Each structure stands twice: as structure tokens, then as C-alpha cells.
């Protein structure tokens, strides 16, 4: 999925998480704050690709990550999500931000993984096991009209339903 697709899809996921009360904190949170936090981390898994939007900004992190794990490796796994959640739940972070913001940051990261799970290439959810997981029979290729249409339509539906 492209950066544009991930950004649109993170807002969709934030709307759905708010409406479905994914967590109590997200249900009661300011929706604008939730969407901004989800947007902030929606591109983070692609930090392992030096030519990604984020990778170009912080090549000093992106290049070593790419060499160590390749694209759609460690950063696209449940282990990476668990490490992020652990870091956000640490005592040092407890007083820095509300629980709803922490939940939304994790939500944005997860929205990226979900978006890439919808593509034929899939993601290695159980990294370091190399098996890739994807939605069977779902031909959502990165870029192009189909991705843009899917992301836009899902955002419109989620927005309509949330309001």
C-alpha cells in the first residue's frame, strides 16, 4: 500500500475504533486527537524502506533497518507492535500522554499492518518466521486506482457510519 493509502486507511481505522469502542480510552477520546495520533504512526512500519516517505527523512535509521531486516520484515510484525506497546506503556511514558493517545498510536501502526495484509505480498506477522500472511483472494495491489478507490470508499463509509 502507498503512503497515501496508509494515511487514508489510518483515519478509517481511527473512526471505526472510536465508533466500535475498540478500547474504552479510544471510545471516550477526542476523535481529532485520535486521528492525528493514528496518522502519526501509520507510516512508521515503512521506516525499513529507505525510499519510503518516512525513510527518506531519516535515512540514518532507514538504511540500517533495511539492511538488517529488509522491507516488510521485522517492522511489519506483531513483535514490532508488542515492542511499541511495551515502550508506550513504560513508566517513563505514563505521565507524558493520555492512554487514548497511546492507544491511537498503536492503532495507527496496526492500521499499516492491516493495509499491507490486504496486498498480495502480505506481511510476516510472526517474524522471525518468514511466512507471510495475506487476505486470500484479495487483489489489492499497491498503488493505482483500486487501492485509492478502496481506501477512499472505506473512509467514506466509516465516516458516514461514525456520524
Show the helix and strand layout.
Layout (H helix, E strand, L loop, with lengths): L2 H17 L4 H5 L2 H11 L11 H5 L1 H11 L8 H12 L1 H4 L4 H19 L26 H19 L1
Helix pairs in contact: 1-3, 1-8, 1-9, 3-8, 6-8
Could you characterize the architecture of this molecule?
The mean pLDDT is 92. This protein is mostly helical. The longest helix has 19 residues. It has one domain. Helices cover 63% and strands 0% of the residues.
Largest sheet: none
Helix-residue proportion? 55-70%
Question: SSE string, helix = H, strand = E?
Answer: HHHHHHHHH
Q: What is the number of independent domains?
A: 1
Shape: globular
- The DSSP helix count reads 9
Oligomer: single chain
The amount of beta strand, in percent, is under 5%
- Could you name the ranges where pLDDT drops below 50 across 5 or more consecutive residues? none
* Distance linking N and C termini: 27 Å
Amino acid at each position: 500500500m502507498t503512503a497515501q493509502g496508509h494515511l487514508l486507511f489510518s483515519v478509517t481505522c481511527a473512526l471505526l475504533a472510536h465508533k466500535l469502542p475498540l478500547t474504552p480510552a479510544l471510545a471516550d477520546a477526542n476523535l481529532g486527537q485520535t486521528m492525528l495520533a493514528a496518522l502519526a504512526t501509520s507510516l512508521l512500519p515503512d521506516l525499513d524502506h529507505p525510499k519510503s516517505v518516512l525513510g527518506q527523512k531519516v535515512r540514518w535509521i532507514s538504511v540500517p533497518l533495511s539492511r538488517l531486516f529488509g522491507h516488510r520484515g521485522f517492522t511489519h510484525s506483531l513483535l514490532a507492535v508488542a515492542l511499541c506497546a511495551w515502550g508506550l506503556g513504560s513508566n517513563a511514558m505514563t505521565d507524558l500522554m493520555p492512554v487514548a493517545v497511546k492507544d491511537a498510536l498503536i492503532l495507527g501502526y496496526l492500521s499499516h499492518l492491516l493495509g499491507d495484509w490486504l496486498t498480495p505480498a502480505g506481511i510476516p506477522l510472526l517474524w522471525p518466521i518468514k511466512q507471510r500472511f495475506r487476505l486470500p483472494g484479495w487483489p489489492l495491489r499497491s498503488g493505482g486506482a483500486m487501492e485509492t478507490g478502496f481506501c477512499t470508499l472505506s473512509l467514506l463509509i466509516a465516516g458516514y457510519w461514525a456520524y
